[in-house]
Amino acid sequence: MKLGMERAKLEIEEIIEREDVTAGMVVRVHGDNLTLVRQEEAASGETTFDDRVRLTRMSRSEWGLSVKRHTGRWERTPFSGSMREMMDAVCTFMQHLVAPY
Asked: Is this model's pTM higher than 0.85 or not?
């Protein structure tokens, strides 16, 4: 993993734990993407991982925000900015996407 993405992962993990709606989420890194994943236990007792939103690094300090569609594809949103700004958008406008079911 790139050093910059490792730092970004640590930064977003701190933000996630401070926010009630995202607390307990897991962050996965793939290339220039940070995917916020909700880890839940299925009725069968198995742990499932449900991708919810994705931040994509556009530059050193700017991120884009995408949401996972019901088809499994990622759809870009019109939101872009700092990681903090993207997490503010997630925790306000998109909180229904990241809250536990």
From this structure: yes
Phi/psi of residue 93, nearest 5 degrees:
-70, -30
Strand partners, 41: 47
Q: Could you give the CA distance from residue 60 to residue 58 in angstroms, rounded to a whole number?
A: 7
Q: CB burial class (10 A; 0-12, 13-18, 19+) of residue 66? A: middle
What does the alpha-carbon distance between residue 44 and residue 40 come to, in Å, rounded to a whole number? Answer: 11
Instruction: Grade residue 43 by pLDDT with cuts at 50, 70 and 90.
Output: confident
Tokens of 5: 């993405």
Angle at 9 between CA 6 and CA 10, to 5 degrees: 90
Closest CA to 19 of 75, 92, 97: 92
- Dump strand ranges (E) for 1-101: 26-30, 33-41, 47-57, 63-68, 74-81
Q: Provide the residue type at 2 as one letter.
A: K
35 contacts 26 by C-beta, under 8 angstroms: no
